[in-house]
Amino acid sequence: MTLEQIYDQEADFVWRMLRRLGVPERDLPDTLQEVFLAVHRNLSRFEWRCSLTTWLFTVCRSIARDHRRHVHHQREVQEDESIDAQVDLRADVHGAAEAGERLLLLESILGELAPEQRNVFVLFEIERMTGEEASQALAIPLGTVYSRLALARKAFRQALARREMREASRALRAGGTP
Amino acid sequence: MNDPRRWTDERGEATALERELVGAGRDAGPSREQKRAMWGAIASQAIPPATGPGAAPAVGAAASTGLTAIKGAAILVLLGAGLVASYRTMRGPIPPRTQSSAPATAPAAPPPPDEQPPGVSPPPVGAPAAEGPRSLKVAAHSAPRPNALAAATLVENTRASQLREESAMILGARRVLRARDPAGALTLLDAARTRFADGGLVQEREALTIEALVRSGQRALATKRAEAFLRDYPKSPHGADVRSLVLDP
C-alpha cells in the first residue's frame, strides 16, 4: 500500500482522531502532515500485525501528545499513566468550521460519558474499529472493551433522553408544544 | 469472542436519532480543498524532488528555521519559474522525479515507541529512514505528445505540482510564524504571493498573512486586510479565525 493510498483512505480518520486528541483546528494541517510523514518513515517496517487504523491511532496519539507538550511547554505528561488515562477522545467542536448542529449535539452527549466509556464508544461505534482494534489501540483487554461499550451505550441513551426531556420542559415553560 | 452488533448496523439497536448523531461524528473531516492542499505539502516532503543540476531541497525540511525557510522559498521560486517556463514552451518533457534520488527529508531519528505497535519492527540504528520512493506513487511526467489528451495530462500534472509548491510555501510560512518569527513568515508569504498570484490557496495565504501582521504588531494593516478578506470571501472557512484575530488577538 502506498503512502498516497493510505492518505486517500485514512486522512479523514486521522483528522478526526487528532481533533479528538486535543489538537486545535488551526493546527490540524501541520499535525496531520506530521502523522503522515511519520507513517512514511515507518511504512517499510510496518508488518501488519495490527490493523492500519490501530497503527494510525497510535501515531496520532504520539503526535498529539508532542503537540500538547509543545503548546504547554514544560507541562509534564505522566509516562507511566495508562493509555486510557492519557487519551480523552472528546472533541471541542464549538466554534469549529466543521461543526454542524448534529455534531455539536453528539459531542455534547459524548462529553457526559465517563472518559473510558467515551473512548471505546468513539472507536467502536463512530470509527467502526473492531473490538480487537479498540483493545489494541487503548491497551485494554477485549472483555473490557465490550463491557465499557455496553455501559457507554446505556449512558449515551440516557444522556440523550435527559436532553430531550430538558428541551421538552423548556418548550412547555415557553408556552409552546413539546 | 465475536464483537457485538454495532448500533448503526442495519439490524442494530440505535434509534433514528442515535444513528444520525453517530453518523455526524463519522462524517467530520477536512474539506476536499484542505485535503488536497495537505497532500501537496506531505508529498513535497515525502517525494524526493527532481534531481540534477539546480534541484532544490525539500521545502518542509528547509522551513524548519526562518532563515533557512526564506532561502528555501527563494530556491523554490526559481525552481517554480523554471517549471512554468518548461510548461509554457512545451518543447520538451518536464524532468521526471527519479526514484533513485535521496529522500527529501533528512534521515530521521528512530520513531518514538508510540509509533511502533506490534506491527512495526524497530529500525536499525543509522539505517536510512525509509524507502520512501518505493512506497510512493510518483507521477512520472512524459514528453508532451501532439494530442489533446497528452496536453491535458501535462496541464494537470503541472497544476498539481504548482499546488504542491504553493502549499509547501504556505505551510513553511506557517511553521515560521509558529516559531514566533512573524517577519520571516511575512517574507515567505510575500514570496508565495509573487509566485502564485492566482494560486489555489489564496484564502489560506491571506488568512496567515493577517495573523502574521497581528503578531508583528501591525494591527491597523491587519484589520484593513481582514475587512477585505471577509468582504471578498464571506463564506470562507477561515472567516471566524480572521475575525477573532483582529477582534481578539
The Cα radius of gyration of chain B reads: 22 Å
Distance between the termini of chain A: 53 Å
Q: Looking at the structure, what is the overall shape of chain B?
A: extended
Secondary-structure-based class of chain B equals mainly alpha
Fraction of helical residues of chain A: 55-70%
Could you please say which CATH topology of the largest domain in chain A applies here? Answer: Rna Polymerase Sigma Factor, Chain: A
Q: Sketch the topology of chain B as an H/E string, one letter per element.
A: HHHHHHHHHH
What would the average pLDDT of chain A be, to the nearest integer?
Answer: 82
Q: How would you characterize the largest beta sheet of chain A? A: none
Q: What proportion of the residues of chain B is helical, as a percent range?
A: 55-70%
This entry's quaternary arrangement is: heterodimer
Please work out how many helical segments of chain B DSSP would assign: 10
* Domains of chain B, number: 2
Strand content of chain B: under 5%
Q: Cα distance, first to last residue of chain B?
A: 53 Å
Q: How much strand content do the residues of chain A show?
A: under 5%
Shape of chain A: globular
- Secondary structure tally: strands of chain A: 0
Stretches of chain A where pLDDT is under 50 for at least 5 consecutive residues are 74-80
Give a verbal description of the structure.
The complex is a heterodimer of chains A (178) and B (249). Chain A has 178 residues and is mainly α. Chain A is globular. Chain B is mostly helical and 249 residues long. Chain B has two domains: 137 residues, no CATH class; 49 residues, no CATH class. Chain B has ten helices and no strands. About 36% of the residues of chain B have low confidence. At the A-B interface, helix 1, helix 2, helix 3, helix 5 and helix 6 of A face helix 1, helix 2, helix 5 and helix 6 of B.
